[in-house]
Each structure stands twice: as structure tokens, then as C-alpha cells.
Design goal:
alpha/beta, globular, disordered C terminus, Glyas_Bleomycin-R_OHBP_Dase, VOC family protein
Length: 184
């Protein structure tokens, strides 16, 4: 946040992503039907192979499908992906698209996702890395060559390099009034 006049507040109550911490628990897959505020559509020449990678590797499930046309995948609420049959006249490409799709997980899930994807395609998975914005991320290429970044927030450590990096751009943790009231 570069504008100190713009309010910032904790809004985790509208997100399925739990606050980061050692006890963070991933929510259950969300099977409800809702108006999707955003989703990604990824063309594929092999719906079955792509769906297998997304479900067995990336932890999504098939919400529904239209055989030969579309598979709607989901993980948590608001993590929706539509795999669609690519135009048969278009040639598959070996290059990843310019678009990158990122989705959140909890830190305890990241290694399992990496292992599951490596079991399906060892060359498709990069090395997990820590970021200056206090997350651990890994880049994975799916069978349709979509670039996926799986990201997990790390617990906030006030004396860490990540905390200093965030503070340098104006992001600081919200003050906890309950803690301040307990202080003498």
C-alpha cells in the first residue's frame, strides 16, 4: 500500500484461505454452487489427461463435466478452473502461455502438492522458494502447459527479512486491540 490514507483491514472472513500459522488447517473442498467472481479457462487437447493432473496432482476435484467439451474443476471456494477442449485444428504447444494462474494453499499442503505433481510429471515441477512477500511458492506446468503457481502464506515473523520487505512498501500487520488491552 503506497497511499497511507487508504484504509487496510483484516478481511479473512470473506476468504476460504485461513490466516497463516503453524496450526492453519486447509478448508474442505467446496462443492457448493455460486456465481463465480473470477475463474480461469484453459484449453487442452486431452481433457482426461489434464483433469487427472489437476485432480491427482494439484488437489482439485471435478465439480461437473460436459463430456468432450468442458470440465469444471474446483478446490476451495473461489478456486475454479474450466478445462475446455482445444480447437482440434490448433497444434499443441510446448511453450507455456504468458498467463500464470496462482492459487493458495496452506503451508502444510505445499510439499504434498509438489510430491504428487512430481509423481505425475517430474519435469513439470520447480523448486519451492520463499518470496519477499512472506510466502512459499512453487511453479508447476500442467499437461496443457499452463503455468501454475501454488502459494502458501508463511507465519508473520516481525523480525524477518520478509517483514522488513513488506514494511518497506507500507504493509504492516494490523494492530490487535485485544493484545493492547492486555498490556499493563
Amino acid at each position: 500500500m503506497t497511499d497511507p490514507e487508504t484504509p487496510c483491514y483484516d478481511a479473512f472472513e470473506i476468504s476460504p484461505v485461513p490466516p497463516p500459522g503453524p496450526d492453519a488447517v486447509a478448508p474442505e473442498p467446496y462443492r457448493g454452487i455460486y456465481g463465480m467472481p473470477a475463474f480461469v479457462t484453459i484449453p487442452t487437447h486431452d481433457l482426461t489427461d489434464s483433469s487427472r493432473f489437476w485432480t491427482a496432482g494439484l488437489g482439485f476435484f471435478e465439480l461437473f463435466s460436459i463430456p468432450g467439451t468442458l470440465i469444471h474443476l474446483r478446490r476451495w471456494a473461489f478456486q475454479d478452473v474450466l478445462l475446455v477442449a482445444a480447437d482440434p485444428a490448433s497444434a499443441p504447444t510446448s511453450e507455456p502461455p504468458a498467463l500464470t494462474y496462482s492459487y493458495a494453499c496452506v503451508l502444510a499442503e505445499l510439499d504434498g502438492i509438489v510430491e504428487a505433481c512430481r509423481a505425475l510429471d517430474p519435469g513439470a515441477v520447480g523448486e519451492p522458494r520463499d518470496t519477499p512477500w512472506n510466502s512459499r511458492e512453487v511453479e508447476i506446468l500442467t499437461p496443457e502447459k499452463a503455468r501454475i503457481v501454488v502459494t502458501a502464506a508463511k507465519p508473520y515473523e516481525p523480525d524477518s527479512a520478509a517483514a522488513r520487505s513488506l514494511a518497506a512498501i507500507g504493509i504492516t500487520p494490523p494492530k490487535n486491540p485485544a493484545k493492547e488491552e492486555q498490556q499493563p
